[in-house]
Design brief:
Elements: E1 4-7, E2 11-17, H1 20-25, E3 33-35, H2 38-47, E4 54-58, H3 60-70, E5 75-78, H4 85-96, E6 100-101, E7 115-121, E8 127-132, H5 146-150, E9 154-158, H6 165-180, E10 184-188, H7 192-197, H8 199-206, E11 210-216, H9 217-224, H10 229-237, E12 240-246, E13 252-255, E14 261-264, H11 277-290, H12 295-309, H13 320-329
Parallel strand pairs: 1-5, 1-9, 2-7, 3-8, 5-6, 9-10, 10-11, 11-12
Antiparallel strand pairs: 2-4, 7-8, 12-13, 13-14
Length: about 325
Amino acid sequence: MTQLFGLGNAIVDVEVNVEDAFLTAQNLPKGQMTLVDSDQIRSLTSALEGLQMHRCSGGSAANTVFAATGFGLKTSYTCKVADDVNGRYFTEEMGAAGITLNSSCLTADTTASSGQCLVMISDDAERTMCTDLGISASLAARDLDEAQLSKAEIYYVEGYLSSSEEGTAAAMAAHTVASAHNVKTAVSLSDISMVTIFKENLLRILGNGVHSLFCNEEEALSWASTDRLDVAIAELKDIAQEVYITLGANGSAVIDQAGHQQQAPGLAVTPIDTNGAGDIYAGACLAARSQGAESIDAARFANHAAAHLIAQYGARLKTLQAYAELKKSFGQ
C-alpha cells in the first residue's frame, strides 16, 4: 500500500556555483525559479562552460517523495520523462530507491527531452533556478493511477504544476480522487514566482481546501499581499487544516488543526546550498505525521532534516541510508 502518492515534475538538476555578477548579467532574479526553453538552457550552459557542474535527479515533489522514502514511507510518484540520458537517470534512481513510478512515466515520443533545471548557487548559498520542463510539461490527468491514489494515505503535489494548464488539471483531478477516498491532500506553494504569476491555478489546485500546506515566509506574505506574517497565517489557515511555514534560520511556524500556532526552532548551521531545503522539510514532516508524530514534533524533525541538507551540496542526501541515519540522529 502506498502511504505517500506524489505528483509533480521529473527534473534532473544541474548545479553550478556562480557569482552574483553572472545573475545580473543574465538578467536572472536571484533566489527565484524562472521557466525557460531548451534554447535558453543551452545558452546559459554555454556561458557557464568551464565551471564544475553536478548532476542529480530532482523536481520539488520528487525530492519530497525521495526524502519520505528514506524516512520510512512506502511511496509512489507520477511524472513524465523522455527516453534520453536525463530520463533514464531519473527513472533508474527512483526505481533503485523503491519508489513506484506510473506506467506512463516514460514517453514513447522519441523527439522529446526530459526536464532539466540549472541551479546556480551564489556565495551566500542562495539558489537561482532556470527550468526547462521538457516533456514534463505534458503531465496530465490521464497519467494518474487512480486505483493506487485511492488507496494512499497522503496525496502530495508541488505548486510548480500551476505553471502548466495540463499539470493544473492533473493536480485537480488527483485532489478530486483523493477527497472521494478520504486521502489527505498536501500541497506546497513551491516558489514565490508560482504565487505571483500562477495564483489562479494554485487556487484551482487547492480547491475547497487541503489537509496540509507548505510554504516559506516570502511565499506566505506574497499569497496574502501583506508584510505581516500573522495576516498571512490567518488567510492560509482558511485553506488548510495544518499550515507549515519555513522561516529560514528561525525554524518554522506551525498552525495545527485546532488553530494553535507554535514555532519550531531552527538549527545553527553554515548553509552551503539551500536547494531542496523546502522539499526535504515537507518529506520529513509528512513522514513524521504519518508515523504518529504531532504537528509541532513533525516540524522539529523537518527543521532538523533541512538544516543538515543545506550544510552540503545537492537537493538530496547522498544515499537512502543517509536519510535513515539522519532520522536516527534526531533528538540525540
